Amino acid sequence: MTDPRTTVVVITHNRRPELLRTLDRLAELPERPRVIVTDNASTDGTAVAVARHHPEVLLLRPGRNLGAVGRNLAVCHVHTPYVAFCDDDSWWAPGALSGAADLLDRHPALGTVTARIVVEPDGVEDPIVGELRNSTLPRPCWLPGPALGSFLAAATVLRADAFRAAGGFHPRLWLGGEEELLAADLAGDGWWLTYADHLTVHHQPSAVRDATLRRAHGIRNTLWFTWLRRPAGRALHRTVHLARTVPRDTVSLRAFAEATAALPWVLRERRVLPAEVESRLRLLEDPQRRSTARRYTA
Question: Which residues in the chain show pLDDT less than 50?
Answer without folding.
Answer: 288-298
